[in-house]
TrEMBL record:
GO function term, MF aspect, one: proton channel activity
Localisation per UniProt entry: Cell membrane
Pfam families noted in UniProt: Otopetrin
CC per GO annotation: plasma membrane
Biased composition (Polar residues): 469-480
Basic and acidic residues bias spans: 482-491
Name recorded for this polypeptide: Otopetrin 3
Protein topology in the membrane: Multi-pass membrane protein
Keywords from the named record: Cell membrane, Hydrogen ion transport, Ion channel, Ion transport, Membrane, Transmembrane, Transmembrane helix, Transport
InterPro entries: Otopetrin (IPR004878)
Family: Belongs to the otopetrin family.
């Protein structure tokens, strides 16, 4: 019926009774208007998001260019622009970032409806653990720098103490912020949050650039060591000498050992902050949220852990030999031969495994996961970008070795090492990126079914023993009350029987676990088994290849061949640019390979 208070329903009813096609067109028109209205709102939100991203990106670009100009001016003209000037600029940026992070923690994130969505793919535990690990090492690095500058305060400026002190506060606050809020998809103060994130990214990039290009303290430490030798030789000099040689040596060695961790910390923070920047204002639908997260379980692998563990043990032995020999006054030529030989044997095996894994990915014919995922997109960019560090160093090394004497034994080994590094990085990138884009279909259900069937199989195979155990337990529980007073020998025999039952139970549990593992392994398809073997093997290999350069094994700088070809300063910049990227690449590859292992 029509409402008498409103004329439009009556008119609608009249038009409906008059002609049905007119009513149908009017309904279609209303739906079209609603769709157009919602589309215009979405378009305006998208335009506002693009404008905010553009403005914050321009802010970061200007900050990076300004800081790069300061750092470059310090390198080419140390009189007009000094290192203290660069430190003052970076201290100002750190203080601004600290104010914004504190405001975000205490203000923005605590507003109503501020964090309605959280990106489950962002802030993986391994990358947040890397932030804590590298952040702790960076704090210790700044402590060593403060201690070193405090001892030499009579010939050093106060800025060399203030800058690392602000750095410690900045590292602690930023690590706490990234640990607790790396998954946030903030829904308030979009533009201000984007600008704060980009300012923090720019500050970390400038800190990384300064760490890569600044060799002042390294040269100063070398001159200090030479000064100590002159003092022991009886030659008096006027340089700034350390009053306590032992403490100074501790600070110097600790600073040199922890120096690469600072560059790694800056790169990891930049990657996490970039994902947060992409997630500002993002609304995650239900099909983006995984109902169950895949868990890491050591199932379906036998040969991968064995081969990988062998590579880790041999690599650790080679690393210890290298550290003992290369740190001596006259490094042995043989230790470089052993180091390069280890890589020449390991890298082809890793490359072959990655090629086989890529072929299996092609044979599986899984659908590609096309859902929007900023974390996965960043993983691909980081893998490709971080690999450029080792690839670039390898090409520089190839040119230097070919131009000098490639027929020499050590030069030929270094040349083979450089070529294999390039090939291994490319093949591993293809394998990891292809695996990250594969859609995971029914893997958890299959694994669960396999585990359940394995348990049933084990239970079926061990009925007699379980009944024996139960009957023995029932026999002990149903002891008559009249036999409570037994002799000492009977008590000892009973205790022996209980120990025997416990040993039998332990043996049964071990046997159950072994049979369940074997059944799970045999229940997987051969493609999944091979993928798990390869990914686990590559995980262990990348771990040892991360440990060796991180803790001081740098033959590409210490053998002296490329350094004599390019010069100390040029090769120092090349190595400091490529080495942190190479270490970051190994660490980031471990995360991608673990994801392939879990989802295989």
């Amino acid at each position: 019926m029509c409402d008498k208070k409103d004329s439009r329903p009556c008119h609608h009813c009249k038009s409906k009774s008059a002609s049905a096609p007119a009513d149908t067109s009017k309904v279609h028109y209303e739906k079209f208007w609603l769709y157009r209205h919602c589309s215009s709102l979405q378009q305006r939100d998208r335009q506002a998001q693009k404008a905010g991203q553009l403005f914050s990106g321009l802010l970061a670009m200007n900050v990076v260019f300004l800081g790069s100009a300061f750092i470059s001016s310090m390198i080419f003209n140390k009189v007009a622009i000094t290192l203290a000037d660069v430190w003052i600029l970076l201290s100002i940026l750190k203080v601004l970032c600290l104010f914004w992070i504190i405001y975000y923690l205490l203000g923005t994130s605590r507003q109503p409806h501020a964090v309605l969505y959280r990106d489950s793919h962002a802030g993986a535990i391994w990358i947040r653990g890397s932030v804590l690990l590298f952040g702790s090492c960076s704090i210790l690095l700044n402590v060593f720098q403060i201690g070193y500058s405090t001892i030499l305060v009579h010939c050093k400026s106060r800025v060399e103490i203030v800058f690392p002190s602000i750095g410690i506060l900045f590292i602690c606050t930023q690590a706490y912020f990234l640990w607790h809020h790396s998954k946030d998809c903030i829904q308030v103060q979009h533009n201000f949050t984007r600008c704060g994130l980009m300012l923090t990214i720019a500050t970390n990039l400038l800190l990384w650039l300064l760490a890569v290009t600044n060799d002042t303290l390294h040269i100063e430490i070398e001159s200090q060591l030479r000064e100590v030798e002159r003092r022991f030789a009886g030659n008096d000099t006027t340089l700034c000498t350390c009053p306590n040689i032992t403490i100074c040596k501790v600070f110097q060695k600790g600073y040199i050992l922890l120096y690469p961790f600072n560059t790694e910390y800056c790169l990891v923070c930049c990657s996490v902050l970039y994902v947060m920047w992409k997630n500002v204002g993002r609304r995650i639908s239900h099909h983006h949220i995984p109902h169950t997260k895949p868990k890491f379980k050591l199932q379906g692998v036998v040969f991968g852990p064995l081969l990988g563990t062998s590579a880790v043990i041999i690599g650790a032995c080679v690393f210890m030999m290298y550290q003992i020999q290369a740190t001596s006054l006259v490094p042995s030529r043989q230790v470089f031969v052993i180091y390069y030989s280890y890589y020449i044997v390991l890298l082809p095996v890793m490359s072959v495994g990655a090629v086989i894994g890529t072929i299996i990915h092609a044979l599986e014919k899984k659908e590609l996961d096309t859902l929007k995922n900023p974390t996965r997109s960043l993983d691909v960019v980081l893998l490709m970008g971080a690999a450029l560090g080792q690839i670039g160093m390898s090409y520089f090394s190839i040119v230097a070795l070919v131009a000098t004497d490639p027929r020499d034994l050590l030069n030929s080994l270094a040349l083979s090492y450089s070529v294999l590094i390039i090939f291994q990085n490319i093949t591993q990138n293809v394998f990891v990126i292809d695996g990250l884009h594969r859609r995971r279909v029914g893997a958890e259900t299959e694994a669960k079914d396999a585990g359940d069937s394995g348990q049933h199989t084990v239970a079926a195979e061990l009925p007699g023993e379980e009944e024996t155990t139960l009957s023995s337990k029932q026999g002990h529980s149903q002891t008559p009350p009249g036999k409570e007073e037994d002799t000492k020998e009977e008590q000892n025999g009973e205790a022996y029987g209980q120990r025997r039952v416990s040993v039998l139970e332990l043996g049964q549990e071990i046997r159950k676990a072994s049979l369940s593992y074997i059944h799970t392994y045999s229940n997987l398809s051969w493609k999944r088994r091979v993928l798990r073997e390869i990914s686990f093997f590559l995980v262990l290999c990348n771990i040892i290849l991360w440990v060796m350069p991180t803790f001081g094994a740098h033959p590409i700088f210490e053998n002296g061949m490329e350094r004599s070809f390019y010069g100390y300063s040029t090769w120092f910049v090349i190595v400091n640019f490529g080495l942190p990227l190479g270490v970051f690449y190994r660490m980031h590859s471990v995360g991608g390979l673990l994801e392939i292992y879990v989802t295989a």
